[in-house]
From TrEMBL:
Keywords for this protein: Heme, Iron, Membrane, Metal-binding, Transmembrane, Transmembrane helix
Quaternary structure, from the entry: Part of an enzyme complex containing four subunits: a flavoprotein, an iron-sulfur protein, plus two membrane-anchoring proteins, SdhC and SdhD. The complex can form homotrimers.
Record's protein name: Succinate dehydrogenase cytochrome b556 subunit
Primary location recorded for the protein, binned into one broad class: membrane
InterPro entries found in the cross-reference section: SQR/QFR_C/D, Succ_DH_cyt_bsu_CS, Succ_DH_cytb556, SuccDH_FuR_B_TM-su
């Protein structure tokens, strides 16, 4: 009697992605966030150099704590995308492909982006 192999039920919440995979997914998410937010940021900054009233409007919008949090989130997205992009350039050049090195550079990217976001966010707040 032949037994059929049944499809495997994957419990997606229980699957743990390795740190290089998390950095890769966050690189993609941060790129999408930056792309989608670019028109908003350009619109926000468009009139700031033309008239004093436009600059005061910009300052009043940016002084809102929720807007500051959104801008800090976008700052993280930029810094993570930048750091991960440099890592991926090295990977494309076949540097750091070993498992331990890949895990180490992924951790460095993750920590560097967070630390730079905290430093620049505190400085800009």
């Amino acid at each position: 009697m032949q037994t059929k192999q049944r499809p495997v039920f994957l419990e997606l919440p229980n699957i743990r992605l390795p740190i290089p995979g998390i950095v890769s997914i966050l690189h993609r998410i941060s790129g999408v966030l930056l792309f989608v937010s670019l028109p908003l940021l350009l619109c926000l900054l468009a009139g700031t150099l033309s008239r004093e009233e436009a600059f005061e409007t910009y300052r009043s919008i940016v002084s809102n704590p929720f807007v500051k949090l959104v801008l800090i989130g976008l700052l993280w997205a930029y810094l993570h995308h930048f750091c991960a992009g440099i890592r991926f350039l090295f990977l494309d050049a076949h540097k750091g492909l070993e498992l331990q090195t890949a895990r180490g550079t992924a951790k460095i990217v993750f920590v560097t982006a967070l630390v730079l976001t905290v430093i620049l966010g505190a400085w800009l707040w």
